[in-house]
Amino acid sequence: MRYCMPPDPNTRKPGFIPPPKSCDTHFHIFGPPDKFPFAPTRQYTPPAAPLEHYFNMAEVVGVERGVVVQPSVHGLDNSVTLDAIERAGGRFRGVARVDDKISRGELQRLHEGGIRGVRFNLLARPRGNVGLDVLDRVVERIGEFGWSVDLHIDPKNLLEQEKRIRSLPTAVVFDHIARVNPAEGLNQAAFQLLLDLLRDRRFWVKVSGADKICNTAVHSYAGLPYVEVIPFARAVIEVAPDRVIWGTDWPHSNLFVPGRTPNDGDLMDLVAQFAPDEKVRRRILVDNPAALYGFS
Known about the structure:
Elements: E1 2-3, E2 23-27, E3 44-45, H1 51-61, E4 65-69, H2 79-87, E5 92-96, H3 104-112, E6 115-122, H4 132-142, E7 148-153, H5 155-160, H6 162-167, E8 172-174, H7 189-198, E9 203-207, H8 210-213, E10 220-221, E11 224-225, H9 230-239, E12 244-246, H10 264-274, H11 278-293
C-alpha cells in the first residue's frame, strides 16, 4: 500500500481576484477516516483531507462554490461527498461513484443530496477502471436525473473508445484535459479528437490537473509552474468557451514524492493565463459550472 503526500498547507493568494460565485469543479474530501473509513480495496492511502481544510484553501484562492468528486479511496460509499455537500449549505454539488447494481431509490437519494454526475476511470492501468458494460448500464439509468458523466480518461482510451463516447446520450465531461501529454504537441491525435468532440455541445472539458499532465514543475513563466498546459487550455477554450470548466484537484492525491505537490494559488493563477480576457474567465469560473451543475 502506497501513502500519499499531503496537500500544500501554505496556499498562496492568486495574483487576480476571481469573480463572485467562482466554482472549483473538481476536488475531493478524504475522511477523516475515523468518521468516513477508507475502502479496503483502495490502491493507495491518502492523509486525511477533511472539509474544513478545503474551506481554508478555497477562501484563500477565492472560490465560493464547488463540485465534490467522490474519491476512489472511499469506493462506492458516497457518504463523505454527501456530507460535504450538506455542510456547504447550497454552495456545493457532487459527482458520485456508482455501479450498475445501484437501485433507483439510491439514485434518487443521491440526487436529492446534490449529486449531479457520475465518474468513471478509463485509464491504461491494471486496476480501478470501470467495465465498459457497467458504464453503459449506469449511463442508461441516470438519464432521467439529467446527470453528466465524468470520464477520467487518457489519450489511449480516448482514441480506442471514440465510438462509445460519441454514442453516450448525456453530457460528458473530460477530466484533466483528457490527460493529454503536452510534450506530444497540439497536433497529437488524442487532443485533436478532443477538440472535435468539443464541437458537439454534449461534451465538456475540465482545464484541471495541470500538475498531473505536465512533465515537470520546473518549467515556469515568471515563476508560474505547469505552463506547458497553457496552449492546450487556450485551444479548448477557443473551440468551446461555454463548455470549459476549471478545478483544483485538491488535495492532489496519488503524489508520493516530496516537493511535487502543487500550490493551489499557482493553479488559480494559471486560469489568468488560460483566459486573459476577464469575460471569458468569468464563463469558465462562474457561468459554465452554474449551467452544468445547476447552481442558481
